[in-house]
Amino acid sequence: MQTQEKEHVVRIQAGSVSLEGTVNLPRDAQGIVVFAHGSGSSRHSPRNRYVAGVLRTAGLGTLLFDLLTAEEERQDMRTAHLRFDLDLLADRLLRATDWIDGQPYTRDLRVGYFGASTGSAAALMAAAERPQRIYAIVSRGGRPDLAAAVLPRVQAPTLLIVGGDDAPVIEMNRDALAQLRTEKMLSIIPGATHLFEEPGALEEVGRLARDWFIRHLAHAEHEVRT
Description:
Helix content: 25-40%
CATH class: Alpha Beta
Structural class: alpha/beta
Number of strands: 8
Strand order of the largest sheet: 1-2-4-3-5-6-7-8
Mean pLDDT: 88
């Protein structure tokens, strides 16, 4: 299988817009994880880039891309409404998944989603639409409650990671966990706040995400669910 060892800039068509992203595949990648960033963020999020690096060290490919165009980001900075347009964000995540399926070096890899903040809800919504293609989801400080309508339909094993000092989000995640009907887990990192800026907190996020994705994505051959 053809692989890439360096980061490459790619363009993903989503309807009338083109979204920029970066894809990186280590040699003999065991799966690929698509990152859905959170409110007011982009593919350059230092926290997501850190986690992506941890995953690549473990042999997983990553795709980080902008859910909004540059013009949409400028508009959203003024109005803050696009970051909560979950139908739009989920659709663009699906377009990124289609892009993966169209590339000869990624189409045979199992796909996982890593979502942060509102990106977590978009990831769950997209996974509910592609149960045969998405094999695992990890949410970091996410708002899975915003995807409440689709949670019972999600088939991908789902790990929800929340900071121990992020009380409101803990309750939102507990409510969402109760609605999921798939393999699921809620991991609370003691002493961590919403952005996991405390010493060791982000490293723990990376470790938990790595183990979850390795468990569910580390298969070279693409398997179709029924």
